[in-house]
Inverse folding.
């Protein structure tokens, strides 16, 4: 961030870690090809950092916030909340690997499962030795090397990781590197998905993951251990859950932040995640600002995601366990959510670009605590399943604000604009949610509130959904030339809970200045519980373009509509909302 970096000069400390760390400031590093330690191996002990040389200024770093209009940058809600880069480095580690023409690592680097995580031990040793309040920085090598290859890393409270501009931290493609002892086998499907560590496992504590560099999960790379070694990719394993009875994929996340307070994710590109990109769980104070999340990138796809027949994962019919796919689309990279704040309080997610194979953002609250005090401001979604609350809401979701959001579904399947999704296997109270400023096009379900997500009903969990006090304001749905989701093909829905002797309507739902270019339809359902049903909606004070659709359903299936429209208002302005994904690695 320019203003911070001009105000402070980086203090550096040279660390000597045998054959691993070079002194701060880059310089040549010896080859670390022989260093390969699994995540469970204790890192090499590092000596206490030596005295620091005179600090020198570093180049200013452009801020992704500038990709938004000035009005967004000047929003009072974000002033003073932008993260700052660490001001003190404990170690600067030079890269020894180099990417190829596709911005990937050559397969020969870690073929056969050998040399699968050559940089893990030296990065972890530097992190372990780093004093609280300082950062380890991954930088380019003296001869232009720009890549690291690692298995799981642990980031303790107080210590940050900084990936420098032009540098990529690649994830191991060897499932056994991520294996959690005693859990399901990483790299396979099973009844639960608890078998793999994340690539970066952090505890919050005034720390973060920073830099304009890249974290690449290599989701489209062929695995090098396990029953699918040299046969399937991470994303092929994910596709098996659509064609086999095992419902969950055991694949690693890119970043998992668990517990503690105050963690920042700032300016990073996270891409090609085998599964979720970013998950925060049980954190008090989480900020994700100015990041770019995308799966798959052009390295694993083609322009416009126009993959040739027979090159993509099999998602229906007979399971594929014999060939690695060579081209991927967002529809075929299952469960690659963008940012999921779960059981987390005091959250700010701002100025991010997200294009993934599942929810762009999904707020969750499961078992251990509520999700509350969440601000989601100035974000752009591309291929995603949209902005979601749920499906796990059993610990309660409260006080959520979503503003200036853009969702372009690109006519992909299972796309949504804004939705609340839960059921009685994981339901709870969801309240005090405000959506104010939403531009949507080319999605299947622009607005949906449903307490029967996944057709779950009659669960023995008896975690009853209770959704109320939801305000949806300043929303525009645009018809787009050639889209399959224009007019009535775009569907909306409201369905409260009405099972197991419980009636919990979705109530105090307000629609204010919600304008579609043409009248949508109701979401169709194969369940006995109709859509719309068990809900109360208030229209106004501003216009609701599909008022006739709502009022014609009022009075049926315990669904009621009150018309409080009294003011005329211009439709929410989306004329400059839809912009290209800002990356040369993007297929769109």
């Amino acid at each position: 961030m320019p203003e911070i970096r001009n105000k402070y000069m980086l203090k550096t400390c040279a660390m000597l870690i045998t054959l691993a760390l070079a002194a701060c400031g880059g310089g040549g590093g010896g080859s670390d090809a022989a260093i390969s330690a699994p995540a469970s191996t204790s890192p090499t002990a590092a000596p206490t950092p030596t005295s620091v040389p005179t600090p020198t200024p570093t180049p200013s770093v452009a801020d992704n916030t500038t990709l938004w209009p000035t009005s967004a940058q000047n929003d009072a809600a974000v002033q003073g909340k932008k993260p700052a880069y660490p001001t003190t480095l404990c170690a600067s580690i030079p890269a020894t690997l180099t990417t190829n023409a596709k911005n990937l690592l050559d397969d020969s680097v870690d073929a056969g499962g050998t040399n699968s995580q050559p940089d893990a031990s030296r990065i972890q040793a530097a992190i372990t030795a780093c004093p609280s309040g300082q950062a380890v920085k991954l930088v380019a090598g003296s001869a232009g090397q720009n890549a690291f290859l690692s298995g799981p890393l642990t980031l303790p409270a107080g210590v940050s990781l900084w990936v420098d501009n032009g540098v990529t931290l690649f994830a191991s493609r060897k499932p056994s590197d991520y294996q959690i002892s005693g859990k399901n086998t990483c790299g396979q499907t099973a009844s639960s998905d608890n078998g793999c560590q994340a690539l970066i496992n952090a505890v919050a504590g005034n720390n973060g993951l920073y830099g304009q560099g890249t974290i690449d999960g290599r989701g489209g790379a062929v695995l090098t251990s396990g029953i699918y070694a040299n046969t399937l990719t991470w994303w092929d394993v994910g596709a098996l859950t659509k064609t086999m009875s095992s419902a969950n994929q055991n694949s690693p996340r890119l970043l998992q932040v668990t517990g503690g307070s105050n963690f920042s994710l700032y300016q990073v590109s996270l891409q090609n995640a085998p599964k979720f990109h970013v998950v925060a769980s049980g954190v008090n104070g989480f900020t994700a600002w100015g990041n770019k999340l995308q799966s798959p990138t052009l390295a694993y796809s083609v322009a416009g995601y126009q993959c040739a027949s027979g090159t993509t994962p099999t998602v229906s019919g007979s399971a594929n366990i014999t060939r690695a796919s060579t081209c991927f689309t967002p529809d075929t990279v299952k469960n690659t959510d963008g940012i999921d704040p779960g059981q987390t309080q005091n959250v700010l997610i701002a100025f991010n670009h997200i294009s993934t194979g599942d929810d762009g953002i999904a707020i969750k609250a499961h078992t251990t605590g509520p999700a509350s005090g969440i601000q989601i401001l100035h974000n752009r979604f591309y291929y995603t399943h949209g902005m979601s609350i749920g499906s796990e809401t059993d610990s309660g979701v409260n006080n959520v604000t979503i503003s200036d959001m853009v969702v372009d579904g690109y006519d992909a399947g299972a796309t949504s604009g804004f939705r609340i999704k839960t059921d009685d296997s994981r339901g709870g109270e969801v309240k005090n949610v405000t959506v104010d400023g939403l531009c949507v096009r080319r999605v299947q379900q622009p607005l949906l509130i449903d307490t029967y997500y996944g057709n779950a009903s009659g669960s023995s969990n008896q975690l009853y959904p209770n959704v109320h006090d939801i305000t949806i304001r300043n929303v525009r749905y645009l018809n787009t030339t050639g889209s399959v989701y224009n007019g009535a093909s775009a569907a909306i829905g409201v369905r409260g809970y009405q099972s197991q002797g419980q009636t919990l309507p979705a109530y105090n739902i307000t629609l204010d200045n919600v304008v579609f270019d043409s009248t949508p339809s109701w979401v169709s359902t194969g369940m006995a519980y109709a859509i719309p049903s068990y809900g109360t909606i208030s229209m106004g004070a501003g216009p609701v373009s599909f008022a006739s659709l709502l009022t014609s359903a009022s009075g049926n299936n315990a669904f009621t509509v009150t018309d409080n429209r009294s003011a005329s208002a211009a439709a929410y302005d989306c004329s400059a909302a839809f912009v290209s994904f800002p990356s040369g690695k993007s297929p769109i």
Remarks:
- The chain has two domains: 1-253+296-332, 340-576.
- DSSP finds five helices and 32 strands in the chain.
- Residues 1-253+296-332 form one domain.
- Residues 109 and 115 are 7 Å apart (CA to CA).
